[in-house]
Amino acid sequence: MYIVNSPRVGVVGEPFNPDGYDVAYLLAGGFIVEKSHTKPAKSAKTEAEETPEE
Amino acid sequence: MATSTYLSNPNVLFGAVDLSDQCTSVQLNQTIEALESTAFGGTARVYTAGLQANELTITMFASYAASESWITLSTLVGTQIASIIVSPAAPTVPGTYSATNPGFTLVGGYLETLPVMNASMGELATMDIVITGGVLTVDVT
To answer: Does B18 sit within 8 Å of A31, measured CB to CB?
Structure first.
C-alpha cells in the first residue's frame, strides 16, 4: 500500500493508487511512501520477564 | 461570435506529480511530419501524413527544495517520460478531463537537456525544458 507523501501527488497521508504510474520514480523522489501491511512483531519474552522478582 | 480564452492557469502533470505552481509557460505543439507524395502528372506539391514529431516546451522556476522542480526532473533527463499531461485548467476531479478541458497527454517524450543552473542577479532562476517526440493523445472523456 502506498501513501501520499507530497502535496504534488495528492493529499498527504491518503492512500495513493499506483495504477498507471511509475512507482519506482515516485518512491525515489519521496513523493509517495510504501506502508507495510504486516503488523509489527511482538517483542520476545525474556526469562527475566517470565520470572517474577522476589 | 468570436470567443477567446485566456489561459492563466494550465495544469502540468509529470505522471502523478503536479508541477503547475512552478510553471510560467507551457507550449505543446502537435506535429505530424509532411511526406511529399507529389507524382508525375501533378500540378502542385501534395503531402501525406508521416510520423508524429511533437514538442513540449515548459518554463518553470528552478527550485531545489524537496519535491520541487529540480528533484522532480533530475531523474528524467535522458529518459522517455512515461506521461506528461497538460490541460487548460486543473480538472475538478483528478484525472477527469472533458471536451472543454481536454487533457493533452504526451507518452514517451524524451527529455534531452535539463538546465541545472540558470542564475542572474536580481531575477528568479528559471529553467526551460524541451521534451521532444512521444505519442500525443487527447483525453476528453
So the answer is: no
Residues of A in contact with B67 (CB under 8 A): 6-8, 29-31
Distance from CA of B47 to the nearest CA of A (A): 37
- Averaged pLDDT for residues A8-24: 92
Q: Do B16 and A30 touch (CB under 8 A)?
A: no
Whether B5 maps to a domain, the answer reads no
CATH number for B77: 2.30.110
Question: Quick one: DSSP state of residue A29?
Answer: T
Strands annotated E in A1-54: 2-4, 15-16, 32-34
Cβ distance A21 to B16 less than 8 Å, yes or no, reads yes
pLDDT tens digit sequence for B15-55: 999 999 999 999 999 999 999 999 999 999 999 999 999 99
CB-based contact B67 A10, cutoff 8 Å:
no
- Domain limits at B92? 11-139
**Residue type at A5 in one-letter notation:** N
Q: How many domains, in total, are found in chain B? A: 1
pLDDT in tens, B75-113: 999 999 999 999 999 998 888 999 999 999 999 999 999
B1 within a domain of the structure (yes/no)? no
Sheet holding B84-87, edge to edge: B17-18, B11-14, B84-87, B103-107, B135-139
Chain A residues closer than 8 Å to B71 by CB: 29
